[in-house]
Structure formats: structure tokens, C-alpha cells
User: Fold this.
Amino acid sequence: MNASKTLTALAAAAALVGTIGYASAQQSGNDSMAPNAGSPADTAQPAVTTPAPVDSSSSTLPSDTTSATMDSERAPQADRN
Amino acid sequence: MRDSNRSLHPVLDGLKQGVVFGAAALAVLLPPIGGAHTTVPRLNPPAAAVADATPRAPRFADFGAETPHEDVRHVADWVADSGDNRHMDFVIVDKRDARIWVFGADGVLKAQSPVLLGAAAGDDSVAGIGQRPIAEVRPEERTTPAGRFVAEPGRNAHGENVVWVDYDAAVSMHRLRANEPKERRHERLATPTPDDNRISYGCINVPPAFFEAVLEPVFDRRRGVVYVLPETKPLQEAFATSYDVAAKHGVSRL
Assistant:
């Protein structure tokens, strides 16, 4: 009877150790995967980002960055009348 | 034999119970662990990846009741639509018609007027002309240059307030001056034709009342953009980035 109890305890302990080991292996496998790499649909999607729309008007703007408000006037000079 | 069989029963019973306990433990522990990866939420695509592809409405210059020449309308519409004026008021000088058009930053016409311009036909300034005395400027060099200029208020050598269009080339917009009576500048400005409005050394002569009522408020310590239309070059060469607003947006101009 004592032998039976001992064997029961050993088998249960072995089963628990195996369970914990299996669960641990599963968890580490999940951690090493990319968040969205789990499904075939995710891996099939190309890594394309849509470029921001280009406003053709902005691309035609001259490169001057002169502000509208003036701090000081240029030196007086003769004009071409 | 019976004794040996009896002695094996406790061993088998113990193994059976151990397997049962282990299976029970698996049943309790595995579902939450094994199902964890199914509960990871999908990451949404970055907001920047969702582009706003909505086309914007075209913007046309507002001429009110005025009817400009086609080149003036083309440039004014392009400026209004593209924002080339960078939120500044802007001016278009039509050399062929000897006329100035003044707009607010929003593309609404403020006023227009005939002007006097450089006596020589041409769209460029001779290099170094801004440093030469006016008496040394030859007749063929008396051009009003074409192009886009960021203009600003200032003073000339006599202390008169002017608007510098091209400071380096000494080209300004100023009140009409009748320094030389034989030039008949006032009379030229008063005639309905632009053919006799070419008399200056390159500056843009504006009626005094127009300068004070329209240009001075626009250039009151502020810059503005002046577009001088060409007379010998093609318009597209002077303003290479300009475009037809109606055609670009696929609409008709009202």
C-alpha cells in the first residue's frame, strides 16, 4: 500500500513536471515570434506604406523663406527712375 | 503466480492514478497558456500609412468685374492655387499692356492701374547696372526685368519712399516723377494705349494717388511678391513652375 502511494506521488510529480516544461516551451515559442506573424494572412501582406500625398503646388514653390514682415529697410540707393 | 500478480496491482494502480492526476493538471494548465497567442491584439496600421487622398478644390484669383489678359489670369490663378506668394500680397506687372494688378494674399484683386516701364524691350537686366549712375545706362539697357521678385519697401537716394522690386538692379516701383518735362510722363500715362508707356530707365512708374492708396498699405513694412510678366521670353520660361489651374483640376473656370 505504501509502495502504491509512493508510485502515485511520483507519477503525479512527473506529470506536473512534464506539464510545466511543456507550458514553458510553448510560452518561449510565442515570445520569439513577431506580434503579427502568427497567421498566413499576416505574413502574406507586403510591408508597403502608402506615401503621403504630394501637393504639386508645394513642389513648385521657390526655395525662398523670406518672411513677410521686415525688421529693417535696406540702405537707400539711387533707383532707375 | 497469484502472489506476484497481487504484488503488481499496487504498482499499476499507482501509475494509473498518476496519469489521471497528470492529465487533470494538463487540462487545467494548458488552455490558458496555449490560447495566449490567440488573444494578442492585432496591431493597427500606423496612422501615417492611411493617406488622405481627397483632392482639394481649385483656387482661382478673383478679378471682380475686371477682365485681364490671359497671361495675367494664368499667373494670378497659379499663384492663388499654388500659394506661391507664401501668404503675402502679390503684384502682377503686365509689361505688354503696361498695367499693374495688385492682389491680396487671398488672390482677391485690390486694384489695377496703367504704369510706365523701361524704355527698352527685354526681360533681363545688364549685370552691374544697379551700381552704375543713371546717366551711364545706355538706351538698350533700359529694361524692366521679368520674373518673380520678393519686393520690399525702402527709400531711394533722395529719401523718397519706394518699393524695391529688384534692389540689386536698382529697379523700384515709385510715384511717377516728371523730372524731365520733355519726357511727358504724365501725358503718356494718361493715354489709353500702352504703346507710349515705355519711357523709364527700368523702374515701374505708378500714378501717385495709386501708389499712396494701394501700394503703400500693401508694402507697409511688409514684403510682397511681384511677378513681372515677360515680353520677349515665353511666359513658361519666366515662370517655369506655373500651370493652368482649371486644366490641372479638370474643371472649367467660371
Summary: Residues 28-60 of chain A have pLDDT under 50 and may be disordered. Residues 66 and 74 of chain A are 14 Å apart (CA to CA).
